[in-house]
Design goal:
This protein is of the alpha+beta class. The chain has one domain. Helix content is about 40%, strand content about 10%. A two-stranded antiparallel sheet has the order 1-2. The relative contact order is 0.13.
């Protein structure tokens, strides 16, 4: 669903960006938490200009 590796997801959980729930040796996620996290990763228009501006 997210298109990221489990390692990256675990890092996001560790950073507190995505809540996870440990059930024994398994980590589970609620769909609503994942959807909320995705909204938090939204890129604001105009915030990436530094990546494509030509050097002067």
């Amino acid at each position: 669903m997210l298109g990221i590796t489990p390692r990256t997801l675990y890092k996001l959980v560790d950073q507190g960006k995505v809540p996870g729930y440990r059930m024994g040796r398994v980590i589970r996620f609620q769909l609503s938490d994942i959807l909320e996290a995705i909204e938090g990763f939204r890129i604001e228009p105009g915030s990436l200009q530094h990546l494509y501006q030509e050097e002067q």
